[in-house]
Write a structure and sequence with these properties.
The chain is mainly α and about 110 residues long. About 60% of the residues lie in helices and about 10% in strands. The structure holds zinc ion.
Length: about 110
């Protein structure tokens, strides 16, 4: 799972389209194929699919447990994604600092 950015190791510079609506995707899950999704469908379509999947195998009364697990995993995923973003920003800032030092030395 990752945000989509330029020079992505799995997507390269190709534009990735959302699996559900064909709009430009914002994130993807890399498996045998790249499952790409836009933020709109992640918010409004994926939860419906998840509800179908959860209710298919869960007897009545387990929705609260499923929602609790979904909520925990959502916040876990958000924390991982935000950490990755912070790491990318920090790396870019470090590269700019290195370039600035190099410019001063030449
Ligand atoms: Zn979409």
């Amino acid at each position: 799972m990752a945000h989509i950015s330029s020079n992505d190791p799995f997507l390269g510079d190709e534009r990735a389209d959302c699996y559900f609506c064909d709009a430009p995707a914002h994130a993807y899950w890399h498996r045998e194929f790249n499952f790409c999704v836009c933020s709109e469908c992640a918010t409004n379509t994926l939860p419906l699919l998840i509800a179908d999947a959860v209710t298919a195998n869960n007897p009545k009364g387990t929705l609260d447990a499923a929602m609790e697990a979904i909520s925990k995993n959502f916040y876990r995923g958000a924390a991982i994604a935000l950490q990755r973003s912070n790491d990318s920003l920090r790396k870019a800032a470090d590269q700019q600092k290195s370039a600035a030092v190099f410019d001063l030395e030449t």
